[in-house]
Amino acid sequence: MAMSTIPWRSWTLLGALSLLLFLITASTFSSLGVILPAMIKELHWSFASAFLGFTLLGAFCGGSSWLPALLIRKIGVRATILAGSAVMIAGFLCLTIAKGLAIYLVGTALLGVGYQMMALIPSTHLLSMLFKKRALPFGIYFTIGSLGGVAGPWMALGGMEIAGGGWRSYWIWQAVASAVVGALAAALVGGKAWLEKAAVETDRAVAEDAARQPANARVYRTQADWTVREAIRTPQFYVIVAAYFAHLLGGVTAVSLAPSHFSEIGVASAVAVAALSLESLMQVVARMSGGLLGDRIDPRWLLAGAQGMMAAGLLALANAVTWPMMVIFALGVGVGFGMTVLAVSILLLNYYGRRNNLELFSMVCLVGAVSALGPVIGGFMRDRLGGFAPTFQIFAAIIGVIFVAALFMRPPRKATEEATAAPIPAPTPVLLRDAA
User: Fold this and answer.
1) At residue 214, does pLDDT exceed 70?
2) CA distance linking residue 78 with residue 374, whole number of Å
3) How confident is the model at residue 321 (pLDDT cuts 50, 70, 90)?
Protein backbone atom coordinates (compact mmCIF):
# COMPACT_ATOMS: atom_id res chain seq x y z
CA MET A 1 0.00 0.00 0.00
CA ALA A 2 1.36 3.42 -0.98
CA MET A 3 0.31 4.71 2.43
CA SER A 4 3.22 2.81 3.93
CA THR A 5 5.57 5.54 2.66
CA ILE A 6 4.05 8.09 5.06
CA PRO A 7 3.03 6.12 8.15
CA TRP A 8 4.86 8.51 10.47
CA ARG A 9 2.56 11.35 9.48
CA SER A 10 -0.61 9.37 10.14
CA TRP A 11 0.62 8.15 13.51
CA THR A 12 1.90 11.60 14.47
CA LEU A 13 -1.50 13.07 13.65
CA LEU A 14 -3.13 10.31 15.71
CA GLY A 15 -0.96 11.39 18.64
CA ALA A 16 -1.95 15.04 18.24
CA LEU A 17 -5.65 14.23 17.96
CA SER A 18 -5.41 11.97 21.01
CA LEU A 19 -3.71 14.73 22.98
CA LEU A 20 -6.47 17.08 21.90
CA LEU A 21 -9.21 14.72 23.13
CA PHE A 22 -7.30 14.18 26.38
CA LEU A 23 -7.06 17.91 27.00
CA ILE A 24 -10.63 18.92 26.27
CA THR A 25 -12.07 15.93 28.14
CA ALA A 26 -9.95 16.77 31.17
CA SER A 27 -10.69 20.49 31.02
CA THR A 28 -14.46 20.31 30.50
CA PHE A 29 -16.51 17.41 31.86
CA SER A 30 -13.83 16.25 34.29
CA SER A 31 -12.77 19.65 35.65
CA LEU A 32 -16.07 21.48 35.91
CA GLY A 33 -17.41 19.38 38.79
CA VAL A 34 -14.23 20.02 40.81
CA ILE A 35 -14.17 23.77 40.15
CA LEU A 36 -17.90 24.39 40.60
CA PRO A 37 -17.98 24.33 44.44
CA ALA A 38 -15.49 27.20 44.55
CA MET A 39 -17.47 29.10 41.93
CA ILE A 40 -20.72 28.52 43.83
CA LYS A 41 -19.20 29.70 47.09
CA GLU A 42 -17.71 32.86 45.64
CA LEU A 43 -20.63 33.83 43.39
CA HIS A 44 -23.43 32.70 45.74
CA TRP A 45 -25.19 30.47 43.21
CA SER A 46 -27.62 27.70 44.06
CA PHE A 47 -26.46 24.17 43.33
CA ALA A 48 -29.42 23.60 41.01
CA SER A 49 -28.55 26.64 38.91
CA ALA A 50 -24.84 25.87 38.82
CA PHE A 51 -25.27 22.25 37.78
CA LEU A 52 -27.51 23.38 34.93
CA GLY A 53 -24.17 24.13 33.28
CA PHE A 54 -23.48 20.39 33.15
CA THR A 55 -26.78 19.81 31.38
CA LEU A 56 -26.00 22.52 28.83
CA LEU A 57 -22.48 21.19 28.32
CA GLY A 58 -23.81 17.72 27.49
CA ALA A 59 -26.84 18.91 25.52
CA PHE A 60 -24.87 21.28 23.30
CA CYS A 61 -22.13 18.71 22.84
CA GLY A 62 -24.65 16.25 21.42
CA GLY A 63 -27.04 18.69 19.79
CA SER A 64 -24.33 20.51 17.82
CA SER A 65 -22.89 17.38 16.21
CA TRP A 66 -24.33 18.38 12.82
CA LEU A 67 -22.20 21.55 12.79
CA PRO A 68 -18.68 20.08 12.45
CA ALA A 69 -19.89 17.71 9.73
CA LEU A 70 -21.29 20.66 7.80
CA LEU A 71 -18.15 22.74 8.32
CA ILE A 72 -15.82 19.91 7.30
CA ARG A 73 -17.65 19.55 3.98
CA LYS A 74 -17.64 23.33 3.46
CA ILE A 75 -14.27 24.59 4.74
CA GLY A 76 -12.23 21.46 5.47
CA VAL A 77 -10.98 19.64 8.55
CA ARG A 78 -8.14 22.01 9.42
CA ALA A 79 -10.35 25.11 9.42
CA THR A 80 -13.02 23.27 11.43
CA ILE A 81 -10.53 22.35 14.15
CA LEU A 82 -9.27 25.93 14.29
CA ALA A 83 -12.83 27.24 14.49
CA GLY A 84 -13.53 24.74 17.28
CA SER A 85 -10.45 25.94 19.12
CA ALA A 86 -11.78 29.51 18.91
CA VAL A 87 -15.15 28.41 20.30
CA MET A 88 -13.44 26.55 23.17
CA ILE A 89 -11.35 29.62 23.99
CA ALA A 90 -14.49 31.77 24.03
CA GLY A 91 -16.17 29.28 26.37
CA PHE A 92 -13.26 29.23 28.81
CA LEU A 93 -13.07 33.02 28.77
CA CYS A 94 -16.77 33.19 29.63
CA LEU A 95 -16.10 30.99 32.68
CA THR A 96 -13.09 33.12 33.57
CA ILE A 97 -15.02 36.39 33.67
CA ALA A 98 -18.30 34.93 34.98
CA LYS A 99 -19.93 36.99 37.73
CA GLY A 100 -23.48 35.91 37.02
CA LEU A 101 -25.18 32.76 35.81
CA ALA A 102 -25.91 33.98 32.29
CA ILE A 103 -22.29 34.29 31.13
CA TYR A 104 -21.41 31.03 32.89
CA LEU A 105 -24.19 29.13 31.12
CA VAL A 106 -23.20 30.65 27.77
CA GLY A 107 -19.66 29.46 28.47
CA THR A 108 -20.69 25.87 29.17
CA ALA A 109 -22.82 25.83 26.01
CA LEU A 110 -19.86 27.10 23.96
CA LEU A 111 -17.62 24.41 25.46
CA GLY A 112 -20.12 21.76 24.38
CA VAL A 113 -20.11 23.05 20.80
CA GLY A 114 -16.33 23.42 20.77
CA TYR A 115 -15.88 19.89 22.09
CA GLN A 116 -17.59 18.43 19.03
CA MET A 117 -15.85 20.77 16.59
CA MET A 118 -12.37 19.94 17.90
CA ALA A 119 -12.63 16.31 18.88
CA LEU A 120 -14.89 13.39 18.07
CA ILE A 121 -16.27 14.14 14.62
CA PRO A 122 -13.18 15.65 12.92
CA SER A 123 -10.90 13.06 14.51
CA THR A 124 -12.93 9.97 13.61
CA HIS A 125 -13.29 11.38 10.09
CA LEU A 126 -9.52 11.82 9.79
CA LEU A 127 -8.64 8.45 11.28
CA SER A 128 -11.01 6.67 8.89
CA MET A 129 -9.21 8.39 5.99
CA LEU A 130 -5.70 7.48 7.15
CA PHE A 131 -5.88 3.91 8.49
CA LYS A 132 -6.97 0.76 6.72
CA LYS A 133 -7.28 -1.20 9.96
CA ARG A 134 -9.06 1.21 12.23
CA ALA A 135 -9.66 -0.61 15.49
CA LEU A 136 -6.18 -0.02 16.93
CA PRO A 137 -5.91 3.71 16.10
CA PHE A 138 -9.49 4.26 17.27
CA GLY A 139 -8.69 2.34 20.44
CA ILE A 140 -5.59 4.46 21.09
CA TYR A 141 -7.55 7.65 20.44
CA PHE A 142 -10.44 6.83 22.77
CA THR A 143 -8.13 5.36 25.41
CA ILE A 144 -6.10 8.53 25.69
CA GLY A 145 -9.33 10.52 25.78
CA SER A 146 -10.49 8.39 28.71
CA LEU A 147 -7.25 9.13 30.52
CA GLY A 148 -8.23 12.78 30.27
CA GLY A 149 -11.28 11.92 32.34
CA VAL A 150 -9.02 10.40 34.98
CA ALA A 151 -6.54 13.29 34.96
CA GLY A 152 -9.05 16.14 34.83
CA PRO A 153 -9.97 16.29 38.54
CA TRP A 154 -6.31 16.21 39.52
CA MET A 155 -5.52 18.94 37.01
CA ALA A 156 -8.28 21.10 38.48
CA LEU A 157 -7.18 20.51 42.07
CA GLY A 158 -3.55 21.22 41.20
CA GLY A 159 -4.44 24.33 39.23
CA MET A 160 -6.49 25.76 42.08
CA GLU A 161 -3.75 24.95 44.57
CA ILE A 162 -1.16 26.76 42.47
CA ALA A 163 -3.51 29.75 42.25
CA GLY A 164 -4.01 29.81 46.01
CA GLY A 165 -7.56 28.50 45.81
CA GLY A 166 -8.60 30.75 42.93
CA TRP A 167 -10.42 29.29 39.95
CA ARG A 168 -10.40 32.01 37.30
CA SER A 169 -6.74 31.47 36.39
CA TYR A 170 -7.45 27.76 35.80
CA TRP A 171 -9.92 28.55 33.03
CA ILE A 172 -7.40 30.97 31.48
CA TRP A 173 -4.78 28.21 31.41
CA GLN A 174 -7.25 25.89 29.71
CA ALA A 175 -8.02 28.53 27.09
CA VAL A 176 -4.30 28.84 26.33
CA ALA A 177 -3.89 25.05 26.20
CA SER A 178 -6.85 24.75 23.79
CA ALA A 179 -5.23 27.31 21.50
CA VAL A 180 -1.84 25.57 21.52
CA VAL A 181 -3.06 21.99 21.05
CA GLY A 182 -5.70 23.04 18.51
CA ALA A 183 -3.06 24.83 16.43
CA LEU A 184 -0.75 21.79 16.65
CA ALA A 185 -3.47 19.39 15.48
CA ALA A 186 -4.53 21.72 12.67
CA ALA A 187 -0.92 22.08 11.48
CA LEU A 188 -0.47 18.30 11.34
CA VAL A 189 -3.73 17.71 9.46
CA GLY A 190 -2.12 18.88 6.25
CA GLY A 191 -3.67 20.28 3.12
CA LYS A 192 -6.61 19.04 1.14
CA ALA A 193 -4.43 17.36 -1.52
CA TRP A 194 -2.59 15.15 0.99
CA LEU A 195 -5.80 14.13 2.73
CA GLU A 196 -7.51 13.26 -0.54
CA LYS A 197 -4.52 11.18 -1.66
CA ALA A 198 -4.42 9.38 1.69
CA ALA A 199 -8.18 8.71 1.55
CA VAL A 200 -7.97 7.27 -1.97
CA GLU A 201 -5.15 4.93 -0.97
CA THR A 202 -6.98 3.85 2.19
CA ASP A 203 -10.26 3.25 0.34
CA ARG A 204 -8.46 1.17 -2.29
CA ALA A 205 -6.80 -1.00 0.32
CA VAL A 206 -10.04 -1.45 2.28
CA ALA A 207 -11.94 -2.37 -0.90
CA GLU A 208 -9.29 -4.92 -1.87
CA ASP A 209 -9.41 -6.53 1.57
CA ALA A 210 -13.22 -6.58 1.55
CA ALA A 211 -13.29 -8.22 -1.87
CA ARG A 212 -10.90 -10.95 -0.69
CA GLN A 213 -12.72 -11.66 2.59
CA PRO A 214 -14.30 -15.12 2.78
CA ALA A 215 -18.04 -15.49 3.31
CA ASN A 216 -17.44 -16.55 6.90
CA ALA A 217 -14.95 -13.79 7.74
CA ARG A 218 -14.76 -13.04 11.46
CA VAL A 219 -15.02 -9.29 10.85
CA TYR A 220 -17.56 -8.16 8.26
CA ARG A 221 -16.65 -5.16 6.07
CA THR A 222 -18.91 -3.81 3.37
CA GLN A 223 -17.66 -3.77 -0.22
CA ALA A 224 -19.68 -0.66 -1.09
CA ASP A 225 -20.19 2.83 0.28
CA TRP A 226 -23.75 3.37 1.39
CA THR A 227 -25.55 6.67 0.95
CA VAL A 228 -27.02 8.31 4.03
CA ARG A 229 -30.53 7.59 2.74
CA GLU A 230 -29.72 3.91 2.24
CA ALA A 231 -28.07 3.57 5.66
CA ILE A 232 -30.90 5.15 7.64
CA ARG A 233 -33.36 2.75 6.04
CA THR A 234 -31.67 -0.23 7.67
CA PRO A 235 -32.71 -1.43 11.14
CA GLN A 236 -29.05 -2.00 12.00
CA PHE A 237 -28.43 1.75 11.94
CA TYR A 238 -31.09 2.28 14.59
CA VAL A 239 -29.67 -0.47 16.79
CA ILE A 240 -26.32 1.36 16.63
CA VAL A 241 -28.00 4.70 17.42
CA ALA A 242 -29.91 3.12 20.31
CA ALA A 243 -26.71 1.61 21.72
CA TYR A 244 -24.92 4.95 21.59
CA PHE A 245 -27.88 6.62 23.29
CA ALA A 246 -28.05 3.92 25.94
CA HIS A 247 -24.37 4.08 26.85
CA LEU A 248 -24.62 7.84 27.40
CA LEU A 249 -27.92 7.58 29.24
CA GLY A 250 -26.68 4.84 31.57
CA GLY A 251 -23.08 6.00 31.97
CA VAL A 252 -23.70 9.70 32.55
CA THR A 253 -26.64 9.00 34.86
CA ALA A 254 -24.67 6.46 36.89
CA VAL A 255 -21.64 8.69 37.39
CA SER A 256 -23.78 11.77 38.12
CA LEU A 257 -26.10 10.12 40.64
CA ALA A 258 -23.80 7.50 42.18
CA PRO A 259 -22.23 9.79 44.82
CA SER A 260 -25.65 10.82 46.18
CA HIS A 261 -26.94 7.25 45.86
CA PHE A 262 -23.99 5.82 47.80
CA SER A 263 -24.46 8.43 50.51
CA GLU A 264 -28.14 7.57 50.88
CA ILE A 265 -27.57 3.82 51.19
CA GLY A 266 -24.82 4.25 53.78
CA VAL A 267 -21.65 3.66 51.74
CA ALA A 268 -18.59 5.37 53.19
CA SER A 269 -17.29 8.24 51.06
CA ALA A 270 -13.83 6.69 50.68
CA VAL A 271 -15.35 3.44 49.42
CA ALA A 272 -17.62 5.33 47.02
CA VAL A 273 -14.67 7.27 45.58
CA ALA A 274 -12.73 4.03 45.13
CA ALA A 275 -15.63 2.48 43.22
CA LEU A 276 -15.97 5.51 40.94
CA SER A 277 -12.22 5.56 40.31
CA LEU A 278 -12.32 1.89 39.36
CA GLU A 279 -15.18 2.64 36.96
CA SER A 280 -13.06 5.31 35.23
CA LEU A 281 -10.11 2.92 35.02
CA MET A 282 -12.33 0.27 33.42
CA GLN A 283 -13.26 2.73 30.68
CA VAL A 284 -9.58 3.08 29.81
CA VAL A 285 -9.02 -0.70 29.86
CA ALA A 286 -12.12 -1.32 27.72
CA ARG A 287 -11.13 1.11 25.01
CA MET A 288 -7.59 -0.17 24.72
CA SER A 289 -8.81 -3.78 24.71
CA GLY A 290 -11.40 -2.95 22.08
CA GLY A 291 -8.74 -1.37 19.92
CA LEU A 292 -6.67 -4.53 20.08
CA LEU A 293 -9.65 -6.82 19.40
CA GLY A 294 -11.73 -4.81 16.95
CA ASP A 295 -9.94 -6.13 13.84
CA ARG A 296 -10.03 -9.73 15.13
CA ILE A 297 -13.50 -9.98 16.67
CA ASP A 298 -16.49 -8.50 14.90
CA PRO A 299 -17.35 -5.21 16.64
CA ARG A 300 -21.01 -6.21 16.88
CA TRP A 301 -19.97 -8.74 19.53
CA LEU A 302 -18.10 -5.98 21.34
CA LEU A 303 -21.20 -3.79 21.12
CA ALA A 304 -23.50 -6.52 22.45
CA GLY A 305 -21.09 -7.36 25.25
CA ALA A 306 -20.77 -3.69 26.21
CA GLN A 307 -24.55 -3.26 26.39
CA GLY A 308 -24.94 -6.40 28.49
CA MET A 309 -22.24 -5.27 30.90
CA MET A 310 -23.76 -1.80 31.16
CA ALA A 311 -27.14 -3.30 32.10
CA ALA A 312 -25.52 -5.57 34.70
CA GLY A 313 -23.52 -2.68 36.13
CA LEU A 314 -26.62 -0.50 36.58
CA LEU A 315 -28.51 -3.33 38.29
CA ALA A 316 -25.56 -3.83 40.66
CA LEU A 317 -25.41 -0.08 41.35
CA ALA A 318 -29.03 -0.10 42.49
CA ASN A 319 -28.02 -2.35 45.41
CA ALA A 320 -24.30 -1.65 45.73
CA VAL A 321 -23.91 -1.97 49.49
CA THR A 322 -21.16 -4.62 49.36
CA TRP A 323 -17.76 -4.69 47.68
CA PRO A 324 -18.72 -7.44 45.17
CA MET A 325 -21.70 -5.39 43.97
CA MET A 326 -19.55 -2.26 43.71
CA VAL A 327 -16.98 -4.14 41.64
CA ILE A 328 -19.74 -5.40 39.32
CA PHE A 329 -20.97 -1.82 39.00
CA ALA A 330 -17.50 -0.49 38.20
CA LEU A 331 -16.72 -3.27 35.71
CA GLY A 332 -20.13 -3.19 34.04
CA VAL A 333 -20.61 0.55 33.66
CA GLY A 334 -16.92 1.23 33.00
CA VAL A 335 -16.49 -1.42 30.31
CA GLY A 336 -19.95 -0.77 28.86
CA PHE A 337 -19.36 2.96 28.57
CA GLY A 338 -15.80 2.65 27.31
CA MET A 339 -16.41 -0.08 24.75
CA THR A 340 -19.65 1.17 23.20
CA VAL A 341 -18.37 4.34 21.55
CA LEU A 342 -15.43 2.42 20.06
CA ALA A 343 -17.66 -0.39 18.76
CA VAL A 344 -20.17 2.10 17.32
CA SER A 345 -17.43 4.03 15.50
CA ILE A 346 -15.99 0.90 13.88
CA LEU A 347 -19.37 -0.67 13.08
CA LEU A 348 -20.53 2.38 11.15
CA LEU A 349 -17.42 2.14 8.97
CA ASN A 350 -17.62 -1.63 8.56
CA TYR A 351 -21.34 -1.62 7.73
CA TYR A 352 -21.71 1.51 5.61
CA GLY A 353 -18.25 2.48 4.35
CA ARG A 354 -16.19 5.62 4.81
CA ARG A 355 -17.55 8.01 2.20
CA ASN A 356 -20.63 9.14 4.15
CA ASN A 357 -19.44 8.17 7.61
CA LEU A 358 -19.02 11.83 8.56
CA GLU A 359 -22.76 12.46 8.27
CA LEU A 360 -23.77 9.12 9.75
CA PHE A 361 -21.56 9.49 12.82
CA SER A 362 -22.86 13.03 13.31
CA MET A 363 -26.42 11.72 13.27
CA VAL A 364 -25.53 9.13 15.89
CA CYS A 365 -23.94 11.78 18.10
CA LEU A 366 -27.12 13.87 18.03
CA VAL A 367 -28.73 11.55 20.57
CA GLY A 368 -26.23 12.81 23.14
CA ALA A 369 -28.43 15.88 23.55
CA VAL A 370 -31.36 13.70 24.68
CA SER A 371 -29.28 11.46 26.93
CA ALA A 372 -28.25 14.56 28.91
CA LEU A 373 -31.72 14.34 30.48
CA GLY A 374 -30.76 11.15 32.32
CA PRO A 375 -29.63 12.85 35.55
CA VAL A 376 -32.70 15.09 35.45
CA ILE A 377 -34.96 12.05 35.14
CA GLY A 378 -33.09 10.40 38.00
CA GLY A 379 -33.57 13.42 40.22
CA PHE A 380 -37.28 13.60 39.35
CA MET A 381 -37.78 9.93 40.21
CA ARG A 382 -35.76 10.32 43.42
CA ASP A 383 -38.08 13.07 44.62
CA ARG A 384 -41.15 10.93 44.01
CA LEU A 385 -39.94 7.41 44.80
CA GLY A 386 -37.51 8.14 47.62
CA GLY A 387 -34.38 6.68 46.04
CA PHE A 388 -32.22 6.38 42.94
CA ALA A 389 -32.43 2.58 42.59
CA PRO A 390 -35.60 2.60 40.40
CA THR A 391 -33.87 4.87 37.89
CA PHE A 392 -30.92 2.51 37.55
CA GLN A 393 -33.22 -0.50 37.24
CA ILE A 394 -35.41 1.07 34.55
CA PHE A 395 -32.41 2.22 32.54
CA ALA A 396 -30.89 -1.28 32.87
CA ALA A 397 -34.10 -2.78 31.44
CA ILE A 398 -33.99 -0.40 28.46
CA ILE A 399 -30.35 -1.25 27.80
CA GLY A 400 -31.16 -4.96 28.15
CA VAL A 401 -33.52 -4.71 25.17
CA ILE A 402 -30.79 -3.07 23.09
CA PHE A 403 -28.37 -5.80 24.19
CA VAL A 404 -30.69 -8.45 22.74
CA ALA A 405 -31.08 -6.52 19.48
CA ALA A 406 -27.30 -6.07 19.14
CA LEU A 407 -26.67 -9.71 19.99
CA PHE A 408 -28.76 -10.97 17.07
CA MET A 409 -28.00 -8.16 14.61
CA ARG A 410 -26.66 -9.18 11.21
CA PRO A 411 -24.68 -6.94 8.82
CA PRO A 412 -26.85 -5.01 6.35
CA ARG A 413 -26.35 -5.83 2.68
CA LYS A 414 -26.98 -3.90 -0.48
CA ALA A 415 -28.34 -5.70 -3.52
CA THR A 416 -24.94 -5.45 -5.24
CA GLU A 417 -23.28 -7.22 -2.31
CA GLU A 418 -25.94 -9.93 -2.05
CA ALA A 419 -25.18 -10.95 -5.61
CA THR A 420 -21.53 -11.64 -4.81
CA ALA A 421 -21.39 -12.59 -1.15
CA ALA A 422 -22.93 -15.30 0.95
CA PRO A 423 -24.78 -14.31 4.11
CA ILE A 424 -22.76 -13.99 7.28
CA PRO A 425 -23.73 -16.71 9.76
CA ALA A 426 -25.65 -15.34 12.72
CA PRO A 427 -27.19 -16.78 15.87
CA THR A 428 -30.81 -17.81 15.69
CA PRO A 429 -33.46 -16.66 16.10
CA VAL A 430 -32.62 -13.56 14.05
CA LEU A 431 -34.38 -10.46 15.34
CA LEU A 432 -33.15 -8.12 12.64
CA ARG A 433 -33.54 -9.09 9.02
CA ASP A 434 -31.02 -8.06 6.38
CA ALA A 435 -31.79 -4.65 4.95
CA ALA A 436 -31.69 -4.53 1.22
Assistant:
1) no
2) 34
3) confident
